[in-house]
Design a protein that fits this description.
single chain, alpha+beta, five-stranded antiparallel β-sheet, about 20% helix, about 40% strand
Length: about 130
């Protein structure tokens, strides 16, 4: 009888281990945060995560300093900004809604986060190179 119980425990452990390994392959990572030069940050989420859509950007302003945060996405890194979000017209603290759209898996992308004020962009801001 003891042999049979030991075999069942070993089989159950092997199945549980296999499920854990398989689940890790499908798990998604949390959104990436990219700091602006000051007063805020941008978010990039390549894969769906909870209620957050995949291939999505958003802008967050954390300081009532008169500057807004702008986040731009360049799909394919061809020098054309394909998607833009900002916090203009909102009082800080404020995060824009996520702006999403399907991008082919593995496509290279650039995400730029900058401070903006009345058409003036604070020198370049931060740049993140990633993949969809």
């Amino acid at each position: 009888m003891r042999r049979s119980t030991t075999g069942r425990v070993a089989a159950a452990a092997a199945v549980a281990f296999g499920l854990v390994v398989a689940a890790q392959g499908t798990a998604s990572a949390a959104p990436k945060s990219v700091d602006a030069s000051f007063g805020g940050y941008g978010g990039w989420n390549p894969d769906p995560y909870g209620d957050i859509p995949g291939d999505a950007i958003r802008a967050c302003d954390t300081s009532a300093d008169g500057w807004s945060i702008e986040v731009k996405l360049d799909i394919g890194r061809d020098g054309t900004w394909d998607r833009t979000v900002n916090t203009r017209g909102h009082n800080s603290p404020y995060c824009s809604p996520w702006k999403s759209g399907n991008i082919k898996e593995g496509t290279p992308v650039s995400i730029q986060v900058a401070n903006v004020n009345d058409g003036v962009t604070y020198p370049k801001g931060s740049l993140l190179l990633s993949h969809a």
